[in-house]
Amino acid sequence: MSLVHEDSQISQDSQMTIIDEDRHEILYFAYGSNMSTAQMRQRCPYSTPIGLGFLPGWRWIINERGYANIVQQDSQTGGGVYGLLYLLPPRDEDALDIFEGVGYYYEKSKVEVTWQLDGEKKAIGGGNGQVVRALVYMDEERTVPAAPLEEYIQRMETAIEDAVENWGLDRAYAAELRRFWA
């Protein structure tokens, strides 16, 4: 069985330094349906997936609007959220702002994410537990867990499978996400 899904973007097999001064891309942490590289390719055609990230001290929910959101937990609760990291150039960030409804539904923030590697998988330019700052979209107004919209369930299923099959997302964590609609 191939580890690369036909709709997934193939990452370049080269080393890249994220902190180069002449680079304009930023890191983006996708924890919802944007974990689907096919969806991101449609929304942000110049972005590049680079590996899994882990955001400690946060919790993943479906909010009152019916879409994925993250909420901060108190420091003693632990836990965290897994997602896919992308290199996101400015023109794709502008497009993503529109898709995410910045100013209406989601706000932009920067968070510290641990860049993960999974066994044989290789992340471009690093990984291995490196802490990086990444852009994240979150809804600070709607933070109560609720049921997902029907159309969103299929997009999340696609995103979860992509992340599991191609990026090493843990199946137990994937099952935890699915409990919101199972």
TrEMBL record:
It is an enzyme of class 4 (lyase). The keyword Transcription does not apply. Residues 28-140 form the Gamma-glutamylcyclotransferase AIG2-like domain. The keyword Transmembrane does not apply. GO terms for molecular function: gamma-glutamylcyclotransferase activity. The active site is at E100. Substrate binds at Y28, F29, A30, Y31, G32, S33, Y152. It comes from the Eukaryota. Keywords: Lyase. Its EC number is 4.3.2.9. This is gamma-glutamylcyclotransferase. The lineage of its organism: Eukaryota, Fungi, Dikarya, Ascomycota, Pezizomycotina.
